[in-house]
Design a protein that fits this description.
The strands form 2 sheets. Strands 1-2-3-10-5-8 form a 6-stranded antiparallel sheet, with no helix packed on it. The two termini are 20 Å apart. It contains no helices and 10 strands. Helices cover 0% and strands 62% of the residues. The chain is mostly beta strands. The model has no long low-confidence stretch (mean pLDDT 96).
């Protein structure tokens, strides 16, 4: 039914499930800096906390507002900075 994912020594955790037949995760990240790799297009929405993101085609960091969604292309790496513990929703396309 649900799969639990854990990364970065437990500092990032998510529950994997399906939304309209598409994979999704709902997770939390502890304050800190992280680099993620993608295997599909990801639509990530910040649901709580404070996040900045640096996408591969951008030269600067940008702050993400609560309920803002950003899109990450497949097969790339991107970086996030969390100023506090934060929650997110990620839809995989």
């Amino acid at each position: 039914m649900f799969n639990v994912n854990e990364y970065f020594d437990g500092k990032v955790k998510s529950l994997a499930y399906s939304v309209d037949g598409e994979p999704a995760t709902l997770g939390v990240m502890a304050k800190g800096d992280y680099e993620f790799g993608t295997s599909s297009i990801e639509h990530m929405t910040l649901v709580s906390g404070k996040m900045a993101v640096k996408l591969p085609n951008e030269s600067d960091w940008r702050d993400i507002a609560i309920n803002e969604t950003f899109i990450v292309q497949a097969n790339v790496k991107f970086q996030v900075k969390l100023a506090e513990d934060s929650g997110y929703l990620c839809l995989y396309k």
